[in-house]
Amino acid sequence: MTSRLNPYISFDGQAKEAMDFYQAVLGGELHSNTFGEYGAADGPDAAKIMHAQLETPDGFTLMASDTPQGMEHKPGDNISISLSGDDADNLRGWFQKLADGGRVTVPLEKQMWGDEFGMLVDRFGIAWLVNIAGEENRRS
Prior knowledge:
InterPro entries: Glyas_Bleomycin-R_OHBP_Dase, Glyas_Fos-R_dOase_dom, PhnB-like. This is VOC family protein. The chain is an alpha/beta fold. It contains 2 helices and 8 strands, in the order E-H-E-E-E-E-H-E-E-E. The chain has 2 domains: about 10-65, 2,3-Dihydroxybiphenyl 1,2-Dioxygenase, domain 1 (Roll); about 80-135, Signal recognition particle alu RNA binding heterodimer, srp9/1. The strands form 2 sheets. It has a 4-stranded mixed beta sheet with strand order 1-4-3-2, covered by helices on one side. Strands 5-8-7-6 form a 4-stranded mixed beta sheet, with helices on one face. The relative contact order is 0.18.
């Protein structure tokens, strides 16, 4: 198995809703397990997500969990997720879907380095960066 880097997001009780949303945007297979499935069936966190993993057809992996009771939750303070490549139609579509219910902080438009780039914060407080490689920056 090769090494890979992917984001892991912590939520305050919205992990299931968020991961369902991301699956609707990006497609793929989503696997989730609750704290209750792993020995805390009667605990206050039983219905919360202990671990969720989304594997998309485009090769993206996104993992998430709900913050267990007693641990501090700081939404969006130290995470952003980058989507980049040269498939302009998909990247534009994902940007639009992720912005639904959220707020665009940098419109997706051509930048001085030749790429289209935009930033947004989705409805769950997660920051996203989208970069579409311009002709001069595409790899052959």
